[in-house]
Design a protein that fits this description.
The protein has a single domain (2-180), classed as Spore Coat Polysaccharide Biosynthesis Protein SpsA, Chain A (Alpha-Beta Complex). The protein is 33% helix and 15% strand. The chain has helices at 12-18, 20-38, 52-57, 75-84, 103-112, 154-160, 187-191, and strands at residues 2-3, 46-50, 66-69, 91-94, 118-122, 128-133, 167-169.
Length: 192
């Protein structure tokens, strides 16, 4: 799930800390690195882009990767739509603003789906950097209903929408929302 890297439209909380142009620059380079790290022949990488038209036409992302428009709605609506839009089988949705996602983390999530209905990768702030389902064709109709997005309750609320599903968790990572979340060594480079 990613947005077109336009200043003032992506990473706005980070932009308030370091400026909107540096925040968009950070996001663009973060996503490029992420895409290099997670490509693997064992799975397909699909870009869920926003805004729909600009994201589908963007030259910021590799042209060889399939793109799907996120469409309207809150984050939960858009993630559930993306899960339903891919072929049957295990599916994971990740955030694009998490510097430590790599092939190992993705592989752990898909392995967890071997004997679980769902998997989450918790984020340090109470949200999550990954959500996965055992079968993309069985996305529960109430998935993500009533989730308090952008709060410390997002993970717990999301898990609650799955009822009695068998849920696994993989490693906790930090997403980047503010300057305090940036990996050390990148703050000075971003501010320059």
């Amino acid at each position: 799930m990613l947005k077109e890297p336009r200043p003032g439209r992506v990473k706005t909380r980070l932009g308030r800390d370091i400026g909107h142009i540096p925040a968009a620059w950070w996001f663009r380079h973060q996503v490029r690195g992420l895409l290099r790290r997670i490509r693997d022949p064992r799975w397909s990488v699909v870009l869920a882009v926003a805004p729909d038209h600009a994201g589908l036409q963007s030259r910021a992302w590799p042209g060889d990767l399939m793109r799907l428009p996120q469409g309207a709605g809150n984050l939960g609506d858009r993630m559930a739509r993306m899960m339903r839009s891919v072929p049957p089988g295990p599916v994971c949705v990740i955030g694009a603003d998490v510097p430590l996602i790599d092939q190992q983390r993705i592989r752990e999530a898909f392995q967890a789906l071997g004997d679980h209905d769902a998997v989450f990768g918790p984020a340090e702030d109470g949200g999550f950097w990954l959500v996965g389902l055992h079968n993309a064709r069985r996305v529960p109709s109430g998935l993500f209903d009533g989730v308090r997005w952008s709060t410390e309750h997002a993970l717990a609320d999301s898990m609650a929408t799955l009822g009695r599903a068998r849920i696994a968790k993989v490693g906790c990572l930090r997403d980047v929302d503010t300057v305090a979340d940036l990996p050390r060594g990148r703050i000075a480079a971003t501010r320059a």
